[in-house]
From TrEMBL:
GO terms for molecular function: DNA binding. This is Tyr recombinase domain-containing protein. SUPFAM superfamilies: DNA breaking-rejoining enzymes. Residues 1-101 form the Tyr recombinase domain. It comes from Bradyrhizobium lablabi. Keywords: DNA recombination. GO terms for biological process: DNA integration; DNA recombination. Pfam families: Phage_integrase. InterPro entries: DNA_brk_join_enz, Integrase-like_cat_sf, Integrase_catalytic. Transmembrane segments: none annotated. It comes from the Bacteria. Signal peptide: none annotated.
Amino acid sequence: MSRYTIVAAPDQTTPRGRRDQAFLLFLARTGARVSEATGVNANDLQLERGRPQVLLHGKGRRDRVVPIPQDLVRSLTDLLSDAASPIMNRGRSSSGSTTSA
C-alpha cells in the first residue's frame, strides 16, 4: 500500500475523515513524529505569511521549524475553518499519553 493510498483512505465527506486525512498528510509531508503532530495547535502554524511552516515540539524539549508544502497548507486551512483551537483532538489518559488523534 502506497503513502498516497493511506492518505486518501479517510472518508472526505465527514469532519472526522477530513481531520484524519489532514493528520496523515501532515505526517507524510512534514516527517513529524506522531507525538509532535498531536501537539500542534493553531499558534504553531504559519500558513499565510512568507514561507509556510510549523513549529514542532519534539523529544527532549527540542523544538524545530519545518516547512509546509502547499498541498498541506490547503488541507490545514480547510481543517482550521472547520474547527478552531487544537488541530488534533487531544484526549489524555491519566498517564498523560494521547488517547486519540
